[in-house]
Every structure is written in C-alpha cells, then in structure tokens.
Design a protein that fits this description.
Elements (H helix, E strand, L loop, with lengths): L35 H4 L12 H4 L9 H4 L3 E4 L11 E2 L1 H6 L5 H4 L3 E4 L9 E2 L2 E2 L1 H9 L3 E2 L3
Parallel strand pairs: 1-3, 2-4, 3-5, 4-6
C-alpha cells in the first residue's frame, strides 16, 4: 500500500481570512479594531505598556542569605583523613577539599555518620552524638 492509496478520512480547510464579509472572517480578519495588535507583527510576549519580564516580581522583602541558609553538613567519618591530634577548623577542611571556599561563607556542622578512629580537636559546630564520640576517643570540642 502506498501513501497516496490510503483512504482520506477528513480534510479541514485552512481558515481564509480577509476574503469578504460572507466568509465570516472579512474586514478586520479576526483582529478586532485598531491598535498595534490589529496592524503589524508584534512579539508574542507583548502585553501592553510594560514589558512582560518587568512585570515578574523580583525578590520580596529584605533578607540576609548568610544567616538564612543552613550550615553545610560534614559526616564524622570524613574527619578520618586528618592525622591524630590535629586541630580541625574551616581552613583545615578547605585544605583537605572537604568543603569549598564558597561554602565557608555559611557555617559547617559535623553530624554523626560513621566512626571516628583518631583523637582530634574540633573548632566547629557539632551534634551531641558527635561531641560524645570525639571526647570518647580522647579528643576535644572547642566552642566556636
């Protein structure tokens, strides 16, 4: 069977605008009367006096993203990279490539995930369970 031998079920004619009053789409051809939209080509985003992208809301209210954001989470097992009796702070985490300089702008919190194998001194935010585990290994947690 060839394409031209298929039975044609339904053919819809294209709307022929501007072909006289009897066609139903004569005179203004469905564009209404007067104005920019009735005359020439305009972009689809045209809404009138103000541009569409200007109408979109910007940020609402005042905020400080540094204090509004949550701290970066580091699991306890990631601290096994450091040698024993090391003092761990933000700079040490950046050198070990555990966090980036961008993440340093917020804060870092150490949560319990895995086991700690070394005696360390930590100068960061820690959870209660992590504090207990660090102190059990002979380490120390200093307040930030």
């Amino acid at each position: 069977m060839k394409l031209q031998e298929l039975i044609q079920l339904k053919v819809r004619n294209k709307k022929r605008k501007g072909r006289g009053m009897g066609s139903g789409k004569g005179k203004t051809a469905g564009r209404g009367t007067k104005g920019q939209k009735a005359r020439g080509k305009i972009p689809a985003s045209f809404t009138g006096s103000m541009s569409f992208y200007k109408k979109l809301p910007l940020r609402r209210g005042f905020g400080n993203h540094k204090f509004g954001s949550k701290p970066k989470i580091v699991l306890l097992s990631r601290l096994n990279v450091f040698p024993a009796r090391t003092t761990i702070d933000m700079e040490q985490l950046i050198k070990a490539k555990i966090i980036t300089k961008k993440e340093m702008a917020t804060s870092v919190k150490i949560l319990g995930g895995g086991q700690l194998e070394k005696n360390l001194t930590v100068k960061l935010l820690v959870s209660k369970s992590v504090r207990a585990e660090i102190e059990a290994k002979g380490g120390k947690v200093e307040n930030v």
